[in-house]
Amino acid sequence: MLSPRMSVTTHAPAEELLDRPRRRPPWLAFGSLVVILVVLGAGLAAVRYYEWCRGASGPRAPVTIAVREGDSGAEVVRRLHEAGVLRCGTVSRWLLRRSGLEDRILPGTYRLTTNMAPEEAFRALTVPPPPEPTVRLTIPEGYRLTQIAQRVHETLGIPQRRFLAEAESGRWSLPPYLPKGTPTVEGFLFPETFEFLREGTTSREVIRRFLDQFAVEAEHLPWGNAERLGLTPYEVVIVASMIEEEAKLAEERPLIAGVIYNRLRAGMPLGIDATLLYDDPTPDGQLSSSDLEHDSPYNTRLHPGLPPTPISSPGLASLEAALNPADTDYFYYVLCGEDGHHEFGVTLADHERNRARCGE
Fold it and tell me: Rounded to two decimals, what is the model's pTM?
């Protein structure tokens, strides 16, 4: 007999408990529905965005796109997107791969428009563009920035003031020759003949081509000699620019370089009038007695050492002479005769005799 205070609890068999359906909390069912709706919404938005990227609408303004040899498909799409030709970047890269046209894009300069459909733009880049009219721009050795700006204006129509503003902006560098922060590119616009598009060429494109050419020409010169000579590569170019202005005969370049280095080591003023002509207070091509007293950092009669910048664009021969000066005892030279040769002297007395003989 059971005690009245005790009760009997019966348990259903385990199999029966397993067969009973479990009730899910209402909040869990609602959360699943929300997730499904979010996924569907995101998918619908992705489809709409994809279709929008494939399309095009809006004004179609002319755009010039340059495709360079070796450009990747991603680079081409980036350029098209930034120019407003394509609506999207990432989707358009996928569309280009899917189109099968990526390997058929040709280098060249293309006239497209803004708001083009991707496939239309891609196909336009597979048709060789008509050749662009070009012009040849020749810069002689020894030209200074102002002369180069005038030649650029005459050939390409770029205003001189605009070109000089870019050249003297302080934004350009060409390590290790042209240090970062140098206020001007004077001396580094390499004298050569270049071909540019007749229309649409900018000051920056011209300067970049000149600097690139300097890097190519200078690459194989013995720049290790600069340290032995006690100069930086930038200072070597300053010396080369003075050699370019002073030397009339090729065989005299190393000798003039030797005189410059001898004077620098001795702490003597260089006394090169071409540096003062670069900063001539009365720019008439002549130096008056008052000009010679002009207190300019380019007046190497008054101030020992190098002028602050190159004074022209030296050619390769002057750069080579600046890095390989003649081993000489000369401290003086004077222009002598109509053939442009110089007479060299060791002492001031030698120099005075040479001056008298040359009618200086």
Answer: 0.69
Question: Does the domain spanning 62-124 belong to CATH 3.30.1490.480?
Answer: yes
Residues 31-61 pLDDT 10s: 565 555 555 556 676 678 788 898 888 889 9
Domain locations along the chain: 62-124, 134-218, 225-328
Q: Which two tokens stand for residue 55?
A: 């399309």
CA distance 4 to 7: 8
Position 284 scores a pLDDT of 63
Give CA–CA dist 43/54, Å, rounded: 17
Can you list the residues of the chain whose pLDDT is less than 50?
Answer: 1-11, 14-15, 17-18
CA distance 257 to 273: 15
